[in-house]
Amino acid sequence: MSTAGHGALTRTKILKRQQAVSRAMEGVAWLAAFTAVAILVVVVWSVARRGASQLSFDFLTKPQIAYDPTQPQGLANAFVGTFVIVAIATAMALPFGILVAIYVNEFATRWIRNAIGLVLDLLQGVPAIVIGFFVFGLIVLPLHQQSALAASFALAVMMLPLVARTTIEVLKLVPSSLREASLGLGVPRWRTVVGVVLPQSVGGTLTGVTLAVARVAGETAPILFTSSLVANGTSWNPTHALMTVPLAIFELSDQPDLPSQQRAWAAAFVLLMFILFASLAARWLATRSKRKLGRAR
Amino acid sequence: MTEILSESSSIEPAVRVETKRQPLPPRERLETVFEIENLDALYGSKAALKGVSMEIYKNLVTAIIGPSGCGKSTFIRCMNRMNDLVPSFSQTGTIRYHGYDISTRDVDPVAVRRTIGMVFQRPNPFPKSIFDNVAWGLKVLGMKDGLNERVEKALTQAALWDEAKDRLKTNALGLSGGQQQRLCIARAIAVEPDVVLMDEPASALDPIATQKIEELMHNLKSEYTFVIVTHNMQQAARVADMTAFFSISRGEEGARWGELIEYDATEKIFTAPSDKRTEDYVTGRFG
Amino acid sequence: MRLGDFVLQGVAGAAAFASLGLVALIVIEIVHRARPAYSAFGFSFVYRVIWDPVHDVYGAGSYLFGTVITSFGALLLAAPLAIGIGLFLSELAPKGILAPVTALVETLAAIPSVVIGLWGLIVLAPFLRDHVDPALHSVLGFIPLFGQAAVGPSLFTAIIVLTIMILPIIASISRELFLAVPSELKEGALGLGATRWQMVRGVSLSYSRSGIAAAMILGLGRALGEAIAVTQVIGGGTEILWNLFTPGDTLASKIAANYQGTSGLLETPALLYLATILLVFSLITSVLAQLIVRHAARQHGAQ
Prior knowledge:
The complex is a heterotrimer. Chain A is mainly alpha-helical. Chain A has eleven helices and no strands. By secondary structure, chain C is mainly alpha-helical. Chain C has one domain: MetI-like fold (Orthogonal Bundle). In chain C, helix 3 packs across helix 5 (155-179).
């Protein structure tokens, strides 16, 4: 004899209520995800709509000339300044980060490894404005002079944890069999590290650097105290303070007049496009290097 | 293709075991819990099981035996809709539970699992206290009345009460493997299921722990119906009233799937099987 | 040891130890430059509400208030939203939209603060002012926090901006935590007949709770230190007003607002004093998050 229908399954009333709650919570999660996507779309759309229309050849190639508003205004000086500052910052942070990663992975004892790991985390947590103030006190005040170099140093300090971390991760992935093979052949330790291990990590390090560049190119706070009192005209001289795109946006956003605001949106659009492009590049590099390392094992 | 051996001949079983098993009541007195008809189970386009048909009876221990890869786990997980968790899974055929087809999409798998419980191969207690492990299911199913008594009863039935009663609030992860598995059994039976499915419950445990679990099943089958998957023939011979033998069939282009070969009283499966493949397996003639 | 090995280990070691010294150097430099202010005002600087360059008297009180209210307000809004997103990305998202949505959430993190600040100032603030603030005031006006609606920049706009900025970090950490919950625990819960939400609540959230706490603290740290976007929308108010719809200021934002120079003699050291407080906050939150992660790793390692 058998029990027919629903009677076979127990406690269906309480289950109905619990399933309703479960479905409601699922709805909440969907809503949360939708909200995040909506925010992103709204912001990017606002910037694109207001900024893209303002782009012109003049904008990209002519500098900002504050003393003569009748001249076509552009932000060439800011683009140049950002390029110089970020390039120098990368040149500072990259070798430093790689050296730190090499030490952590190849030479350090566990204690030192933990200490450096902690320090990198602490460094990443220091607010950008504090780092700017730090470089201000360390370099700008004693020299009585702002400079792109000082700004680069501040950005380099911010890039260091990212570059070091990614390089450490990538070095860890290099199979020890490679190291052992090289050492077994009689190749000295330093040669092994530089000639065998490091080349394997190029992809990962490149990813880390690209991510770090995407991160600091948009930073304004460290620039405020190190490279904000800028002269007019486009300059490539790193010993002077140079205008940067984020700072330009920051200052233009404060102005009440429409042309300034329009230039702010245009600059924001260019900055956003650059950063999105860099982030995509980083992601593409990451998948490529993972595949390469996967083959090496 | 089956080779029927004559009724009178019996084989030299590969397994001789001590068993507490009682002789089976006559078939008319057995109540059907599951009626499985023509079950096919597929992962994507690959068949894992084909054409399984059998009945599982109340208050018996039914063992599912067979070589690796014959679909035993897939089969048992069909019975409580656990395969729903695998995105590529699909099945055809019917699984009637007390006459009600539970394999269709419009039956809530959560409802199914509340009366058909499961114990898994590796003990998986929650990282909570022993008490909370058993109590969690009770709270979730709304059986909060007399919580303490229910927990004690479940732990007692799972032969864990004596070892646990002084440390109910300690973390369950501090228990040994065998104790953890008994805790998982307690957790499953606390919510008063009708059927308890066990997917190789003792394969990760030592012989003494295994023995405790087998004793458990024997003592509890008057209250629950057990279906146990095991790769250990001796265990099936010791513990099961009915035994189902699954094996791997091959087709063209390297296709392999599991099929139910023979299903009968354990005694018969191990001493006078009807199918040659069953005989080969239980006498250890192949791996 | 060969010369090459010696050189490499030396140079790499120098870089490593330099990085160890970097944090110390930052602390020393900031504290050193803030000393004139500390000598002049002592510890009472931390709670005094005044910023007067003319008479050269300063206090961090209103900025501390602004920092605490905006950061915790943002955390309050961002945390449940981010955890929901983490759950969505780990349990619910159908195959087709999982990758795009994950990428979109990460992209939100990449938007520079000055761009969010610009958007916040020109697009968000008027919208909040015209539509959201009055609605909140009419419904919750009995709470002093939601007093008379704003005319211009406000603490509330800053809170919304900060929420948007810390949302992605908490969300991606939560997502990783939920993906790391062992599947046998989830199966155990589902096998008992738990609904999906019961399983998430009883197993996933419970297993990940330390990690989520650490994620929230990291998000809080990010909010505490944000200077640019906040200063663009918050209005630079100097008093402690409990109405969210009035202008205010935070530690970081006050520092940023004065980048063009200071007038009072002690004003720059006072700003550095603010920076010291900010630095202490950031170090505490970083260390706290680390401790929680390490404690959780030990607990889970016991299995």
